[in-house]
Design a protein that fits this description.
The protein is α/β, with parallel strands linked by helices and 474 residues long. 45% of the residues lie in helices and 12% in strands. The chain folds into three domains: 136 residues, Ferritin, CATH 1.20.1260; 278 residues, 3-Layer(aba) Sandwich (Rossmann fold); 37 residues. 36% of the residues are buried. Strands 3-2-1-4-5-7-6-8-9 form a nine-stranded mixed β-sheet.
Length: 474
């Protein structure tokens, strides 16, 4: 659906006119609960048609179809009054005594949210814009991520909400290489809007042969998220992917002591892009053993993820260059990773993969728990020919990983791939920031060529200036 961006842009422009949604952050929050209600109402209607026993936790008069779907429906003060005085209070106070997890989710979303818009006319205009998107009819299940990403990219910096949208090409690659199987438990302990979870769900759906297996996917694919907005968006994303009751915990992954996790908490697979560059709050570093305590969130997440994997469990995670190097606690964390896990592959990505949110250099780490690392294969993903950097209009595409996928199962050293053994890593105090040895030679040649070119240009410029000066002196 090519006009998603224009619909979102129109909705954003309408919200800009409203005094209640004067900032990008408030516009995203407003859009969040509206999309959630629209999508869950649509899916509930679908479930009631398919299953005679299914009853939606949302009262009929509060479903999107009842008050929002008609473009000529209630508006103005009547609409604002309905949303603020009926919709929010009722959904925030649903009866939870039955243990219905879908009811609990709806309660959590509306108890933690507000209708920020002040004018019913503006609210009706935004509703009518969202009605132009029919998620049920669309074949593109990634519309939701696209809508959210369009909004997020409008923020001047992702730091406002601290969220990074992992490019779909990257989530797909990581999921495909880890290859989740039916019955395996999979966790993203910092799931954001659910990009890795939906990639795993789509991967598992390819081998689903029964309704029971489909239900099991919803149980086995798990996420943890502690910020209200991404938590709501992740649930919406999974509901959109036909998971009736998403298994997403509303909680801070770092707030529990490592010793509190039991065998039942361990999982077969971890896929994650943990927050990095952040400082952990609430003294959460004290939940970790003394030798691994740090304020850097990415490093603590790495310790947590090693701990949460079952023996033989597999992981694929995104880490910045800063986590691959450094002394003290950083070195001890890397040593633990190499002692407890077989870190078999590191894919080095260009700096611009996460633009426009961050220009930090990132890496994809693939490891299996249970045996120490003996050798690491490095693979440097290069920008497509003619690209100076990725951008919002030129994002990374999954097709670019074709060479990597071909190499993955039949490994040998080449200009993009090299191997480093354990002894070298130990001598190098477990520094994992190993540059491409082939690349440095090429760069040296290129830089010499560039230098000669610049000297030539400089001489030509000097010569021209000298001639000009001589003419003036005549």
């Amino acid at each position: 659906m090519s006009n998603i961006s224009s619909i979102v842009k129109s909705a954003r422009n309408i919200m800009r006119q409203d005094t209640g949604t004067g900032s990008d952050e408030l516009r995203i929050l407003q859009l969040g609960w509206m999309l959630f209600l629209k999508i869950i109402s649509d899916k509930d209607e679908e479930l009631e048609l398919l299953d005679d026993d299914y009853i939606s936790p949302i009262p009929p008069e509060l479903r999107w179809q009842a008050w929002a779907a008609d473009d000529e429906g209630i508006t103005g003060d009547e609409l604002i009054s309905f949303v603020n005085d009926q919709l929010f209070p009722t959904l925030a106070n649903l009866d939870l005594s039955t243990g219905n997890r879908r009811a609990l989710l709806i309660h959590e979303v509306f108890a933690d949210n507000y209708n920020y818009m002040k004018k019913g006319v503006h609210l009706r205009q935004v509703i009518n814009k969202l009605n132009e998107i029919d998620f049920n009819d669309s074949k593109d299940l990634h519309l939701f991520g696209q809508i959210y990403e369009t909004f997020l990219s409008e923020l001047q910096s992702a730091g406002t909400l601290g969220e990074f949208y992992t490019p779909r090409a990257v989530t797909q690659l990581m999921t495909e290489m880890v290859n989740p199987q039916q019955g395996e438990t999979l966790l993203d302990p910092a799931c954001g809007t659910g990009g890795f979870l939906t990639a795993a769900i789509e991967h598992l759906k390819q081998s689903t042969t029964s309704g029971e297996q489909h239900e099991a996917i919803g149980h086995h694919v798990r996420g943890w998220e502690y910020k209200p907005l991404p938590y709501m968006l992740a649930n919406t994303n999974l509901i959109l992917h036909d998971i009736t009751t998403p298994n997403i915990l509303y909680s801070d992954s770092l707030e529990r002591s490592l010793s509190e996790y039991s065998h039942a908490d361990r999982v077969d697979i971890i896929l994650a892009n943990p927050p990095f560059g952040g400082v952990v709050s609430n003294n959460n570093e004290n939940n970790f053993p003394q030798r691994y305590r740090t304020k850097e969130s990415a490093d603590l997440f790495l310790i947590l993820m090693i701990h949460l994997l079952k023996p033989g469990g597999r992981a694929a995670i995104v880490l910045p260059d800063g986590s691959l190097t450094g002394d003290g606690v950083k070195q001890r964390i890397r040593q633990k990773l190499l002692d407890d896990c077989n870190l078999h592959t590191i894919v080095r990505l260009p700096n611009s993969v996460f633009q426009p949110y961050a220009s930090v250099a990132t890496n994809l780490l693939f490891f299996t728990k249970g045996e120490p690392t003996q050798t690491i294969w490095y693979y440097e993903h290069q920008l497509p020919e003619g690209y100076k950097a990725y951008s919002k209009t030129k994002p990374i595409q999954v097709g670019e990983f074709a060479n990597l996928k071909a190499w993955w199962h039949d490994r040998s050293a080449n200009e993009q791939a090299w191997q480093v053994d354990r002894t070298t890593l130990e001598t190098n105090v477990y520094n994992l920031d190993i540059k491409n040895p082939h690349r440095s030679q090429v760069e040296r040649q290129l830089s010499s060529g560039e230098l000669l070119q610049r000297l030539h240009h400089s001489f030509a410029k000097s010569d021209a200036l000298l001639k000009q000066l001589q003419q003036e002196l005549r």
